[in-house]
Design goal:
Layout: H1 8-33, H2 38-51, H3 53-78, H4 86-104, H5 110-139, H6 143-166, H7 203-219, H8 222-232, H9 234-239, H10 244-271, H11 282-292, H12 297-320, H13 327-342, H14 348-359
Organism: Massilia aquatica
Pfam family, one: BPD_transp_2
Transmembrane segments: 12-35, 55-76, 88-104, 110-131, 143-167, 200-219, 239-264, 270-291, 298-315, 330-352
Amino acid sequence: MKTTELPRWASAFVLPVLNLLSALLVAALVIHLLGESPTESLGILIDSAVINPEGLSYTLFYASTFIFTGLSVSIAMKAGLFNIGSEGQMYLGGLGLTVVMLTLDHSLPAWLLIPAAMIGSALFGAAWAFLPGYLQARRGSHVVVTTIMFNFIAASLMNFIIVKYLIPEGQQNPASRVFSEAGAMPRLNEWFPVLGDTPLNVSFLIAIAALVIYGMMVWRSSWGYQLRATGLNQNAAHYAGVSISRMIIVAMLISGALAGLAAVNSVMGSTHYLSLNFPAGAGFIGIAIALMGRQHPVGIFLSSVLFGALIQGGFDLSLEKPNIPQETFIFIQGLIILFCGAMENLYAPAVLKLLNIRKG
């Protein structure tokens, strides 16, 4: 009997790997056209982003932010929602933690200040996701449209707030004042000196914990079953007693909170102040991570590390190979999004045919 659907292992592992290899092959062709050796370039990238301990530390630092934005998009996808607003929600999350920091960083100890700032980032991110979720649930406004609009609103609002209210008197840099030392996330090189002087901090461990909690909630709880049922078939979920509008709003609130927490690594773990455009596209990369990782914790982690390695390795490679500009790796990210998103089922018919031949 012929198989009509791919098994889970094929759709969750084989297809993403084939899509990734396709994107890398096209990237290798581009590097060749730029006059450089693809194999040599790949060796430099892997060495600087994975093998070198300091480079790996930077890779995991970038991955820490991407895990949160990937989770933000994934939890919404499980409810059948395409949250494109993680960028804006992360931006507002940065404002939330900054408000806490500027208010309390000279009066609270670190063990109270850091959790309070994290709560502030989650609350502001969730608040920014609430209205798109409410409009989808109660008014039928499509969440894709509203979250895109809210990204632009967030950028304009943050530009106004930072320039108007947060720049210290007498300074020109569009950023808040530097937080006190109590507001700095502990860095992992304090425990593992081999990591070098890098910004990798406790946010990475918090991101791993978030992946575990996400996996347990989505696949090991009744609420997760209701969430997935809503995403697969809203009518069936409704007849099973699930409040669709409530589930949509709750899913968007959690999605926004996770995006807001992504700001913790960037702001408290690295710069220690709020600056313009600090998300730097991390919210949009989260979309690619959720698609490539198939909304699974392991897939999200591996995809986040991959994109972190592209940023870290790409920076070093562009220094060693001037013919390969830094923008090439934005192009490679776009290729991965193309193959793992719009063309995610490109190889599905061939894999299905191969499986049927083996069974026959």
